[in-house]
Design brief:
This protein is an all-alpha fold and 240 residues long. It has eleven helices and no strands.
């Protein structure tokens, strides 16, 4: 086996093990699987009408099993709707930030016209917050960018940083950056409970922060996220 063939097989394994993506799949299916993987990044913070334990141990034919099947179908529909919205960006003729905000609001406060988003009321105990909406959308866009599946009309430099606990902790650590970071005074809310106003403030401050030469916010996020994740893992090891 040549080195080139070996690398291709390793890449294919990575794509399948992380995203469930097979190389010969249509781009549309790959994109939907990116959205599904992004959902997994926030799934633990979403409260459904049944607990995770109840759904995991649901017996065939039970109301819990029926709920789980219908909920999983809804999640897939949401992923498809999200990808359709991203693919329609060009036709929206809007600035990226305006388009981004409107799409997040569909998650949080869907109208009757947003049929798939509205169906979430059948399954959700508390609805979706702005913090959860930004994570689903931003991680989907990040995965599409990483796999070169982002629509040409969306500039990678315009992408927002997905806000999570690692990024919030990074913003609180002044030694990582030069100058005073207002985000270090963030009110301590979990990212999953974040309001639209807090989210907008954080994105604005991230864009204004010093970065490496020609580094975009989404590139900054990747570098800093790895650093904070590694630091967190090291702290856990040292505490054992």
């Amino acid at each position: 086996m040549s080195e080139k063939t070996c690398k291709k097989e390793l890449y294919d394994f990575l794509m399948y093990s992380v995203f469930g993506i097979i190389d010969k799949e249509k781009d549309k299916n790959k994109k939907i699987k990116c959205a599904r993987r992004a959902y997994r990044d926030l799934a633990r913070t979403i409260k459904y009408k049944y607990s995770s334990s109840e759904l995991e141990h649901a017996k065939k034919g039970s109301k819990e099993a029926d709920f789980k099947a219908k909920r999983d179908s809804w999640i897939r529909e949401m992923c498809i709707e999200l990808i359709n919205s991203i693919d329609m960006f060009e036709k929206e003729k809007k600035e990226f930030d305006i388009w981004h905000k409107e799409l997040c609001i569909k998650f949080v406060e869907p109208t009757e016209e947003d049929e798939v988003f509205c169906r979430g009321k059948e399954f959700l105990e508390e609805g979706i917050t702005y913090g959860q909406a930004q994570k689903w959308l931003n991680m989907t866009l990040k995965y599409l960018w990483l796999m070169d599946l982002l629509p040409e009309e969306i500039s990678p430099r315009s992408l927002h940083v997905p806000i999570d606990s690692y990024i919030l902790n990074a913003l609180k650590e002044k030694p990582l950056f030069e100058g005073s970071i207002k985000a270090s005074k963030y009110n301590g809310q979990a990212w999953s409970a974040m309001s639209e106003d807090n989210y907008k403030q954080l994105q604005s401050e991230i864009r204004a922060m010093p970065k490496e030469e020609n580094e975009s916010p989404i590139e900054w996020e990747g570098r800093v996220w790895i650093k904070m994740a590694n630091k967190g893992n090291s702290n856990k090891s040292n505490s054992k």
